[in-house]
């Protein structure tokens, strides 16, 4: 169990109460929890999975592989395997292992892992070659960690889409990322559940919420949920302003702020109404950003090495072995707030 807060007295009171009800042991400041290492520095906090990635490479006999600079070759177009599956069970295990790293601390592999996971039922040689490339990329970036300096303390988001990136069914891919305190706190790369006929429509679907299947969400609804969550955390005493979501499509921006939807697609009309409600209620605002500055771009397609590196830095991924010199941020919000971490674990779990 991980307990954190800005008031040490309240943290201590909570620990005493839980210890009186359950058989628990106080292990002090959290160092590693669920395979995620917490590193405290002068300029902020870094969370890393370098040890988990190292174990994963050993597990799949890739500890001696040659590092590579990108998680996915942008020239490769993956298609379903029509032949006999190649080691399907091991492929599923590899995808599951990569997903935990992707969901926890590595947004830079989200597109590659999301794309490869669609072929888990029948992987071919090309899929194995691509998944091995992701492992090689992780080998070269093993010491990357998400760094939170506390600057800025404003929640901001980026949204993007790639039109018809999936040739087998002509679907598009949505990507979004939200940052707080200098690092990414929420990100996703997902296949769109509806067919769009233009880049503008695919960008608009990425902004809105996909209620067509289950509880899939997109940038607008994710922003609303995060805003409500922040309201419940007593770190922001002033009224929270609308969340800026940056989009690199002028046409999508104009459509979002248009009061009337004059299209013929019903599914886009519903999304337009949702976006308009979020804007009118002050939950979000849509801001234009150039494509080269859109931090969600790497969540929708494979990019070259320079763009992958700049996107990783943009979302807060930095090499933790370089010490304080790798941090360019000069504001430590967490330290000023006295934010600390304590961990409680059951005796039987710590052996």
End-to-end separation in angstroms reads: 15 Å
* Portion in helices: 25-40%
Structural class: alpha+beta
Biggest sheet record: 5 strands, antiparallel
**Rounded mean pLDDT score:** 81
Shape: globular
Domain Reverse transcriptase Ty1/copia-type: 1-72
Protein name: Reverse transcriptase Ty1/copia-type domain-containing protein
Pfam families: RVT_2 (PF07727)
InterPro entries: RVT_2
Please outline the helices and strands.
Blueprint: E1 2-5, H1 8-21, E2 24-26, E3 32-33, E4 36-41, E5 44-48, H2 50-59, H3 88-104, H4 110-116, H5 125-140, E6 144-148, E7 156-166, E8 171-180, E9 183-191, H6 199-207, H7 219-231, E10 243-247, H8 250-257, H9 266-280, E11 284-288, H10 305-314, E12 317-319, H11 333-337, E13 340-346, H12 347-350
Parallel strand pairs: 7-10, 10-11
Antiparallel strand pairs: 1-13, 2-13, 3-4, 4-5, 5-6, 6-12, 7-8, 8-9
Helix pairs in contact: 3-4, 6-8, 6-9
What does this structure look like?
- This protein is α+β, with helices and mostly antiparallel strands.
- It is 36% helix and 21% strand.
- The strands form three sheets. A five-stranded antiparallel sheet has the order 3-4-5-6-12.
- Helix 3 runs antiparallel to helix 4 and helix 6 packs across helix 9.
- The chain is globular and about 60 Å long.
């Amino acid at each position: 169990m991980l307990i954190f807060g800005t008031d040490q007295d309240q943290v201590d009171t909570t620990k005493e109460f839980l210890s009186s009800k359950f058989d628990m042991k106080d292990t002090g400041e959290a160092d590693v929890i669920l395979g995620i290492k917490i590193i405290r520095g002068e300029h902020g906090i870094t969370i890393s999975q370098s040890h988990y990635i190292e174990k994963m490479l050993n597990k799949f006999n890739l500890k001696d592989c040659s590092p590579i600079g990108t998680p996915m070759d942008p020239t490769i177009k993956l298609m379903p395997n029509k032949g006999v599956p190649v080691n399907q069970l091991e492929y599923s295990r590899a995808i599951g292992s990569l997903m935990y790293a992707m969901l926890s601390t590595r947004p830079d592999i989200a597109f590659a892992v999301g794309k490869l996971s669609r072929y888990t039922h029948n992987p071919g040689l090309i899929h194995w070659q691509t998944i091995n490339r992701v492992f090689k990329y992780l080998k070269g970036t093993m010491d990357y960690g998400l760094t939170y300096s506390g600057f800025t303390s404003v929640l901001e988001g980026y949204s993007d889409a790639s039109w018809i990136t999936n040739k087998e069914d002509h679907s598009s891919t949505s990507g979004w990322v939200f940052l707080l305190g200098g690092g990414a706190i929420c990100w996703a790369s997902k296949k769109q559940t509806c067919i769009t006929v233009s880049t503008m429509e695919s960008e608009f679907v990425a902004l809105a919420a996909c209620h067509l299947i289950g509880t899939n969400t997109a940038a607008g609804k994710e922003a609303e949920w995060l805003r409500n969550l922040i309201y419940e955390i007593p770190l922001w005493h002033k009224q929270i302003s609308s969340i800026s979501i940056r989009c690199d499509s002028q046409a999508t921006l104009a459509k979002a702020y248009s009061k009337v939807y004059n299209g013929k697609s019903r599914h886009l009309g519903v999304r337009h109404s949702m976006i308009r409600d979020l804007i009118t209620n002050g939950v979000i605002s849509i801001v234009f950003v150039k494509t080269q500055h859109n931090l969600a771009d790497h969540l929708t397609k494979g990019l070259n090495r320079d763009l992958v590196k700049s996107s990783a830095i943009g979302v807060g991924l930095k090499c933790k072995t370089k010490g304080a010199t790798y941090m360019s941020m000069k504001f430590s919000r967490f330290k000023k707030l006295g934010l600390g971490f304590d961990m409680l674990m059951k005796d039987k779990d710590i052996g």
